[in-house]
Every structure is written in C-alpha cells, then in structure tokens.
Design goal:
Elements lengths: L1 E6 L4 E10 L2 E11 L5 H19 L3 E5 L7 H20 L4 E4 L1 H8 L7 H11 L8 H16 L5 H9 L1
Parallel strand pairs: 1-4, 4-5
Antiparallel strand pairs: 1-2, 2-3
Length: 167
C-alpha cells in the first residue's frame, strides 16, 4: 500500500510517501509545498494545487495527517487549522481515506517517546527508511506520519477488506 503522510503548515506543508508491504517500509518520495501569495485564500489555493499534483504524480492509496494542537496564539491555531483542512481536502478529493494522528502518537510510534524533538524524529525516520534523503524537517515529520499510519491505520477498515477480497 502506498501511503501519503502530510505535515500541515500554512507556509510549509511537508509531505512524504512510503510503500508499505506488511512490516516492510520503503521510501518513495518526500518534499515541501511552499505557499505563495499575500492573500490567505491564494496561499491555501497554492497549497491545494501543489498537494494535488503530488497525489497525481505518486498515486497514493491512503493518506494521513497530523492533528492540530492548540497553542497560545489563537489566530495562528486557526490559520494552521485552515491549512490542515487543505491537507485533508486534497487527498479526500482524490478519493483517499485520510487517517488523523496526534503529534504525540506519531512520535511514540516512530521514536518510542511521545515528546521527542524534531532531530530524534528525523533520525528514526532515517533508521526506518534506509537511504532516504529528507528534504527538510517538515518532510521528515510527514514521513513519520506516513510510518505511523502504516503501523496503525493502513490495512484497517472496509476498503482494505474489499481489496483483500479482490486479490
């Protein structure tokens, strides 16, 4: 199964794609969508277009997105929520189911500790996907989200059961 992991952000939206064959994981691609424009609506549109192109280019079968955490800046949290909406809309528009994972759940799955820092996450992504060339911290987080989905969400649900029955 090909899984797209997305780390939502308004300026930089990380994405990472892995192939999951049982317990085996393989890196396919990773990158960062950078929003363009001054107006919020155009920045969101640019993220949607870039993420849609990634989906069209790599044909994932499932997607996973990190849940938004609430911070002290309410306006910032709302903007991040809008970017997260784009991160869920683009794969849903392509017909993909979208898993959602809390940041601590992703870190615990990939690193073994729920409060790991970005360096630890990137290191463990490299361990689990040997030879990967990670574009940046946002892409590393997106790959970690995809890995989390491979361990917790991929292969579950009606769509997976139908696929197994057709095989």
């Amino acid at each position: 199964m090909r899984i797209l992991g997305i780390d939502p952000g308004l300026r930089h939206m990380g994405w990472g794609i892995i192939d999951c064959d049982g317990p085996r994981l393989r890196h396919v691609a990773n990158g960062i969508c950078h929003s363009t424009g001054d107006d919020l609506s155009f920045r969101l549109l640019s993220l949607f277009d870039q993420l849609s192109a990634v989906i069209a280019d790599h044909a994932p079968q499932a997607a996973a997105v990190e849940q938004t955490f609430v911070n002290k800046d309410g306006a910032g949290t709302l903007k991040l929520g809008q970017a997260r909406g784009i991160a869920m809309l683009a794969p849903a528009r392509a017909g993909l189911s979208v898993g959602e994972y809390a940041p601590n759940a992703v870190k615990k799955t990939v690193v073994g500790v729920g409060h790991a820092d970005k360096r630890q996450v990137a290191h463990m992504v490299r361990v689990q996907l040997p030879g990967v060339d990670i574009v940046g911290p946002d892409a590393a987080d997106a790959l970690a989200i995809a890995i989390c989905h491979a361990h917790h969400g991929a292969g579950q649900g009606l769509a997976a059961a139908v696929a197994r029955a057709r095989a």
